[in-house]
Amino acid sequence: MAHFNIPLLVKQGLRLLNFPDSLVAQVFKAKYFPENNFLDSCLGNSCSYVWRSIWATKDTLKKGLIWKVGTGMNISITEDAWIPNYVNVRLMSRFNNLQGDKVADLINSNEREWNRELIVNTFPEDVADLILQIPLLLERHEDFLAWNGESSGEFSVRSSYKLLQGLDPTAYALQNIYRDFYIKLWRIEMPTKIKIFIWKISWNYLTNRVNMIIRRLATSSLCPRCGGGDETMNHLFRECPTSMEVWRVLSVLDLTMITYVEFGEWLTMAEPFVLHFGPLGGKEILEFMTKQVDQVRRLQDLSIAILKNLMELEKKFKKTSTVKIKWSHPPGQGVKINFDGAFDERSKYSASGVVVRDCSGQVLISSIEIHRGVASTFAAEAIACRRATQIALDMNKEYTIILGDSLTVIKKCKNTVLDKSQIGSIIHDIHRMKLRGN
Fold first, then answer.
1. Which of 53, 179, 203, 392 is deepest in the core (most CB within 10 A)?
2. What's the per-residue H, E or C state across the chain?
3. What pLDDT, on the 0 to 100 scale, is given for residue 301?
């Protein structure tokens, strides 16, 4: 539970970065980091409990953030995380043929393109390919931080939780052991309070004497029933003579005989068996299983009969219908622009196709461009959309309709919020073109 609370605090730390003008951010900045930002702040002396809690998540926040390249002036090549899909996130090594340590040194600022020759001759092949796949804006803009755990670039508690799992897998070993057990547990038809009780057992959340000693709620850790040892979960359910007698009476199999496994593994072995069969004997279990098999066979026969009837109906009433999709004319003297993108995963090449028609359907412009160093299918579609928008801007028609088959790209183009995804720079270019067109 403590590890689940950390992402909630990480979210508050990220708000200090994203909303520096908020009242809380201004108060914290004035008191704790007046000369820098939250990521570079120090804990300080006599700090509040709230600040101490948020500040403690700073390292986790750093591991989850990634820079989105704009000018590249604020991003360190070797110390900052800025290469998407790179295993180590940061390069953490020096390169002799670089004059500086800023990402801006890798960009031809006039052409707004990567310096391909410099990158290929400087970095390992896999790193160079990833760098060249990062899209750059046609116009300069400031670098900004995004959340690396989500494709949208926006923070989520779920992705932060997964990040913590990757950083400290041993802390979640117990959860992995119980994973299948939990799936079966929540599907069992039984009172919810019993399910919750079993879940508390698995996480050692019951108020046994040892847990009460840790919380300073008891003076002795001895078992109040037998007094023969500390009342741990293992003692309470396996070692205490009272519990052993209960298991002997209730179970088909004496579960206390299974002593060669740890308590967590024992729980996953014992609980499903007891919950399913309870005090049933072998004869009752056999009758139960036979009844279930007969029921399944009856359902199979019924399914076959229904399927045969459906096939007969399909042969009898089968009709073939063809839907003709017609191109619709733009209104008045406007134009309609259709775009599409194609992507080759192996070569990382993409093709952008754009067709412009007038109100009579006459083709005015047809354009095909090849792009290299494209990261994904979405990036290929976004590049094609940017090309279509550029053509619309150059034509300067009073009424223009732009159509494409990528719903994700279209939605991003309509949304005015800053896009922090991998194709965010391309979407930003499209927004700038739309503003100029208006």
1. 392
2. CHHHHHHHHHHHHHHHHHCCCCHHHHHHHHHHCCCCCHHHCCCCCCCCHHHHHHHCCHHHHHHHEEEECCCCCCCECCCCCCCCCCCCCCCCCCCCCCCCCEHHHHEECCCCEECHHHHHHHCCHHHHHHHHCCCCCCCCCCCEEEECCCCCCCCCHHHHHHHHHHHCHHHHHHHHHHHHHHHHHHHCCCCHHHHHHHHHHHCCCCCCHHHHHHCCCCCCCECCCCCCCECCHHHHHHHCHHHHHHHHHHCCCCHHHCCCCCHHHHHHHHHHHHHHHCCCCHHHHHHHHHHHHHHHHHHHHHHHHHHHHHHHHHHHHCCCCCCCCCCCCCCCCCEEEEEEEEEECCCCEEEEEEEEECCCCCEEEEEEEEEECCCCHHHHHHHHHHHHHHHHHHHCCCCEEEECCCHHHHHHHHCCCCCCCCCHHHHHHHHHHHHHHC
3. 58
Q: Mean pLDDT, consecutive 10-residue segments, the chain of 438 residues?
A: 76 91 93 90 85 88 90 89 80 74 88 89 89 87 88 87 67 55 75 82 83 82 86 84 75 55 59 46 44 49 55 58 64 88 90 90 90 91 94 89 91 90 91 85
Residue-level pLDDT at 284: 46
The predicted model scores a pTM of 0.60
Domain boundaries, the chain: 2-169, 173-277, 281-319, 335-437
pLDDT at 1: 56
Q: What span, in angstroms and rounded, lies between the C-alpha atoms of 171 and 176?
A: 10
